[in-house]
Amino acid sequence: MKIEEIIKTNSKMSNGTRTVINLSYTARNIEEFLSTPFKEYDLSVQQYNVLRILRGQKGNPANLSTVQERMVDRNSNTTRLIDKLIKKDLVERQVCPDNRRKIELFITQPGLDLLSELDPITEQNNAQILQNFTENEIETFNNLLDKLRQNE
Amino acid sequence: MKIEEIIKTNSKMSNGTRTVINLSYTARNIEEFLSTPFKEYDLSVQQYNVLRILRGQKGNPANLSTVQERMVDRNSNTTRLIDKLIKKDLVERQVCPDNRRKIELFITQPGLDLLSELDPITEQNNAQILQNFTENEIETFNNLLDKLRQNE
DNA sequence: AATTATAAAAAGTTTTAACACCTAATTACC
DNA sequence: GGTAATTAGGTGTTAAAACTTTTTATAATT
To answer: What residues of chain A lie within 8 A of the CB of B51, using their CB?
Structure first.
């Protein structure tokens, strides 16, 4: 369905408005679809992303600020988000010995185990979303998204 | 910048994951950019969208369910969202005489005035986001977004 | 060495969202 | 006409996001 039909607008929108609404609507749509499996694991998409960032460190610790930098949406509550992961034993936190303002974050073994359980589900869902896209379209789409971000 | 550079990932992602992250990140990015001017007017993007929906009725009342249907993100708290607009005198609510379960929502004159003030700002910002896109790219982008939503 | 500035993280507060449940009005059906 | 089912909207509670302020540690300055 075209976006105009979905939001049942009767006045015609400008190209800019239409595109922005389409982007926003589609992103929410996809995010909702993807978040469903996480609910069974009592994990938010955000928490899952933090776990993946920590795993990406391959054993090296990450500071809170590093995690924030890499988050898809960096909000200001990363401390509390990580508190929750710690409470579930998925993450460990220790004060950095070199600079006691910093903290060092590690993913635990249970955290890694959880990720290996979730990864295939996510991969499959991500793939499903793109199932009707050709390789070419995927490239085009990513390039257009990259280009869209250049204007602010 | 490519999305991989932005989130500084060191492990390579699948096409699906990369694209989903790119979409999500870009949408948030754009939404944040667009929401800035609204803050000065003490209005959220959601509230602005509801006002536009009511104006789109061109004098006819809208039910709550109609508004919900047309919202970009239909959440379950539309009642309370509209409460806030009423408190600011931007919207009026009355019980539908034909069916007292239904309510009728109208945008007020101050609501219309506020919209005419905000519209050019939004239009300009929406246009700015697309400034580097050709007409062709805009069409392609919208088509790809539409296609992306077909898979769930 | 004391003073100021900056940086990293945490905590406080207020809004907003999510989810389930509730209430009132209408419709359907016996 | 009385009872169940459905529909439209509202409430309550809890959790998460947004925004702001505070705390503590380090760096810079004088």
So the answer is: none
CB contact under 8 A, A19 and B142: yes
Dihedral angle over CA of A37, A63, A75, A22, nearest 10: -60
Query: Which tens digit of pLDDT belongs to each residue from A66-76?
Result: 999 888 776 67
Per-residue pLDDT, averaged over A33-45, amounts to 91
Q: Cβ neighbours of residue B138 under 8 Å, at least 6 residues apart?
A: A15, A19, B130
What is the spatial distance between Cα A10 and Cα A16, in angstroms, rounded to a whole number? 17
- Higher pLDDT: B103 or B59? It is B103
Residues 26-45 of B with CB under 7 A from strand D: 39
Residue B62, strand partner residues: B105
> pTM score, two decimals?
0.92
Interatomic CA distance for residues B95 and B53, integer angstroms:
19
Contact between B122 and A69 using a beta-carbon 8 Å cutoff: no
Q: What is the pLDDT of residues B75-95, one digit of tens each?
A: 779 999 999 999 999 999 999
Best probe of the A interface among B8, B9, B24, B136, by most A CBs < 10 A, is B24
Residues A79, A86: Cα–Cα separation, whole Å: 10
